[in-house]
Amino acid sequence: MIEIRDLLVERDGHLVLTIDRLRIERGEVLAVLGPNGAGKTTLLLVLARLLKPKHGTIQFQSRTGSIESDLAYRRRISVVMQDPLLLDQSVFNNVAAGLRFRHLPEGEVRERTAVWLEKLGIPHLRRRPGLRLSGGEAQRVALARAFVLAPELLLLDEPFASLDAAARQALADELRRLLAETRTTTVLITHDPTEVRRLATRAVWLEDGRLSDRAPDTVAAS
Amino acid sequence: MGDVFSVTLLSLEVSGLATALSLLIGLPLGTALALGRFPGRAVLLSVINTGMGLPPVVVGLAVAMLLWRSGPFGGLQLIYTPLAIVIAQLIIAAPVVTGLTAVALQQLDPRLQQQLLGLGASQTQMVLALWREARLPLIAALIAGFGSVISEVGASMIVGGNIRGQTRVLTTAIVLETGKGEFETALALGALLLVITFLINVALTFVQQHGTRQRGRP
User: Residue A129 carries which DSSP code?
Assistant: First the structure.
């Protein structure tokens, strides 16, 4: 489904990511593990086309990056950052934001938003201001905001990093259920092996900007 | 009484138009300075910040020299017209609106831009969403821009000439009446200026705070 080839990414003049080849299959949940500063978030930003690589191609469902516009590409994917980064609007409007960016009819926006508020167990929060939620609630809103778009590719950047252990476990279980239900192709950035075991179908290890061959062993051992 | 009405109306028209134009310039320019990365950005930001404290009388002098009959734009015959005052006030208000717009947007989490783009926002949708996020300080920028021009006297006096029935505004009328020793009239005009400024700021603050109360509705 997605194939990365000969990827070189520089930030502030320094080479931070080098990936010769990485393939992500449809329906797969690929965990990208690695220590801080390994280049995990950079990889996610490149996959979201929020960062331009110096060299290389990312082929997405047989369409190469250079042909499709960044906007058209981004409207086929969804990104959930480490922090929820909610808008200063109601929970409902936060979840509906991406649909409205796509100029969908308001009736469809309301319907789909209501469905995903329900699926994430937060319909009672629909009128609550997005900036007045607990960490767990906010991250549920962020997930609903991503899933409501029915993305072909879901990019998750350590989505539970800012949560306490209890909230993390509850939300990870929720996410596993949703990923199984929707079969959304997902790249999960994490440094938590427990999350990998719980959520991922495959894992790769990233260190110093390079994929390591040790990945499967490391994950299996953890 | 008729005089007071026309002077008040002209004050509102001139300062209102100057503020509206400063918004048209300041909002996109401030946004570009806050979000863009281009050569000369830091220098331009310094110029804008300096411009926020421009003495109106110096602006009046510069605009007068440009619009003077023998000046580069003398052919336009704008000196001593309300439009000349609008131009001068625009030069005073635009840096205020631009600078405060830039600050308002720079206070937002920089990752919010990436998150909005990641949700499928176009560049325009992203900027509109950021403006909405920063609506409280942006309305404060508008209030500050209007306040800087409705209260200034130096530029209006120099480029407008304080001509009765043509370019006399509240502030220049106050100066004139004070010069004549008509303190009661000057004081009354001063009170009128204060009341008008207060009412306009009350209206803008209401809009600003109403936005706060609206949060949370779907």
Answer: B
The residue among A71, A77, A101 with the most chain B CBs within 10 A of its CB, best to mutate, is A101
CATH number at residue B35: 1.10.3720.10
Q: What angle do CA B130, B131, B135 make, to 5 degrees?
A: 120
User: Whole-prediction pTM value?
Assistant: 0.88
Domain interval for residue A79: 2-221
User: Predicted ipTM?
Assistant: 0.91
Give the model's pLDDT for residue A64: 55
Can you say whether the dihedral through the CA atoms of A95, A101, A102, A104 is positive or negative? positive
Contact A74 B118 (CB under 8 A): yes
Please determine, for residue B216, whether its predicted confidence score (pLDDT) is greater than 50.
no
Q: Which CATH number fits the domain that encloses residue A144?
A: 3.40.50.300
Find residues 125-154 of chain B whose CB sits inside 8 Å of chain A.
125, 129, 132-133
CA dihedral sign of residues B198, B199, B204, B205: positive
Instruction: Supply the range of the domain harboring residue B142.
Output: 2-214
Counting the structural domains of chain A, the total is 1
pLDDT digits (tens, 9 = 90+) for A42-90: 999 999 999 999 999 888 875 555 567 899 999 999 999 989 999 999 9
How far is residue B201 from each of residues A30, A39, B14, B56, B133, measured CA to CA in Å?
Answer: 55, 49, 17, 21, 21
CB-based contacts of B73-79 (< 8 A; 24+ apart in sequence): B79/B159, B79/B161
Q: What is the mean pLDDT of chain A?
A: 89
Give the span between the Cα atoms of A188 and A196, in whole angstroms: 8
Total domains in chain B come to 1
Q: Is the pLDDT of residue A129 over 60?
A: yes
User: In the prediction, which pLDDT does A217 show?
Assistant: 44
